[in-house]
Amino acid sequence: MARYDLKDDGELIALLVVEDRSAFTEIFNRYNKLLYSHVFNKIRDEDTAQDVVQDIFVVLWEKRLHVKNINLSGYLFTMTRNRILNMLSHGKVVSDYTAALSHYAEPVYPNAEEIFYEKQLSAIIDEEIKALPPRMREIFMLSRFKHLSNKEIAAKLGLSEHTVADQIKKSLRTLRFKVGVRILLSQLFIF
């Protein structure tokens, strides 16, 4: 059985061209963390950074027949740089378009039904925040309602920044799921 981790990038590219999935897996294992770190340092958003890196590897697989005789690391980092620039450029276009539209939009006032659903959603969110485990709830409240940074929360509670970030991420995931389920269930039982 061939050891792909011992192969250089050129050999992996040659194997990738003939659709060797193990070569692709080795390329992914070799460059995934590097690319993620690079993207995260530029955009500072974990989920978006993961999405960008995943897209890079999807494109690499889709273009595998056309990547002969390339510098693999240079190719991957160039694709990554271009993806980041496109994403930032697109964000600016959307922001500019939204700003331009806001000058022409008439103010819209919520009707009674919208106010009712907004209050109902707010009550559901409050209940689910109260249902979080005590430490997770405390970290979430400091982050979202006191607007403290992860570093400030970590110092205040004697935790590591990584623990704080992880707790915030878990609380957001939990809240999205539980609030989503409650909203879905409330919609199912409304006739």
3D architecture notes:
- The protein is an all-alpha fold and 191 residues long.
- It folds into two domains: 4-102, Rna Polymerase Sigma Factor, Chain: A (Orthogonal Bundle), CATH 1.10.1740.10; 112-188, Orthogonal Bundle (Arc Repressor Mutant, subunit A).
- It has helices at residues 9-17, 21-43, 46-62, 72-102, 112-130, 134-144, 150-157, 161-188.
- Helix 2 crosses helix 4 (72-102).
- The model has no long low-confidence stretch (mean pLDDT 85).
- Keywords: DNA-directed RNA polymerase, Sigma factor, Transcription, Transcription regulation.
Overall tally of structural domains: 2
Radius of gyration: 23 Å
Largest sheet properties: none
Q: How does CATH name the architecture of the largest domain?
A: Orthogonal Bundle
Would you identify the regions where 5 or more consecutive residues have pLDDT less than 50? none
Q: What is the CATH C level class of the largest domain, in words?
A: Mainly Alpha
Q: What proportion strand?
A: under 5%
Q: What's the number of helices? A: 8
> What is the name of the CATH topology of the largest domain?
Rna Polymerase Sigma Factor, Chain: A
SS-based class = mainly alpha
Q: Give the rounded overall mean pLDDT.
A: 85
Which term fits the overall shape? extended
Order of helices and strands: HHHHHHHH
Helix content: over 70%
- The overall strand count is 0
Q: CATH H-level name of the largest domain... which superfamily?
A: RNA polymerase sigma factor, region 2, helix turn helix motif
Distance between the termini: 62 Å
Domain RNA polymerase sigma-70 region: 28-89
Organism: Sphingobacterium griseoflavum
Protein name: DNA-directed RNA polymerase sigma-70 factor
Keywords: DNA-directed RNA polymerase, Sigma factor, Transcription, Transcription regulation
